[in-house]
Amino acid sequence: MVLAVFYLFAAGRSDRNAHLIDFKNDLKDAQLRLLDGEGLRNRYPGTRVFSFTNTYAVGGTNYYCELAGENEWFIKEGRLAITTNQLFLWIDKPAGATR
């Protein structure tokens, strides 16, 4: 019984992590396409990518965002942003930005 509960917990976490990796790939692909001169098109299933030019200070370092996205798996938790130097920031709805 304990093993079954652990398996269900682990399977749920791995599914969530897989969706987060896909979410990051969507943002990275959109940024690369934008740098190649293509416009922003929402071609990613479950992810909406948009221009996002906010600046966040995390741990004393300023991060300049270029794009952000909202994914159906994480819509209640927050959004993911990619900076001009290709780092990801999680913009949590209640707590703000974290790296």
By secondary-structure content and strand pairing, the structural class works out as alpha+beta
Report the radius of gyration as a whole number of Å.
15 Å
Report mean pLDDT, rounded to a whole number.
82
> Assembly type of the shown chains?
single chain
Please characterize this protein's 3D structure.
The protein has 99 residues and is α+β, with helices and mostly antiparallel strands. The protein has one domain (2-98). Helix content is 34%, strand content 34%. The chain has one helix at residues 2-35; strands at 47-51, 55-58, 61-71, 78-83, 88-92, 96-98. Strands 1, 2, 3, 4, 5 and 6 form a six-stranded antiparallel sheet that branches. A hairpin with a 2-residue loop joins strand 2 (55-58) and strand 3. The radius of gyration is 15 Å and the shape is globular. The model is unreliable at 4-8 (pLDDT under 50).
Explain briefly what this protein structure is.
This protein is an alpha+beta fold and about 100 residues long. Helices cover about 35% and strands about 35% of the residues.
Write the layout of secondary structure elements.
Elements: H1 2-35, E1 47-51, E2 55-58, E3 61-71, E4 78-83, E5 88-92, E6 96-98
Antiparallel strand pairs: 1-3, 2-3, 3-4, 4-5, 5-6
Features:
99 residues; alpha+beta; six-stranded antiparallel beta sheet; 1 helix
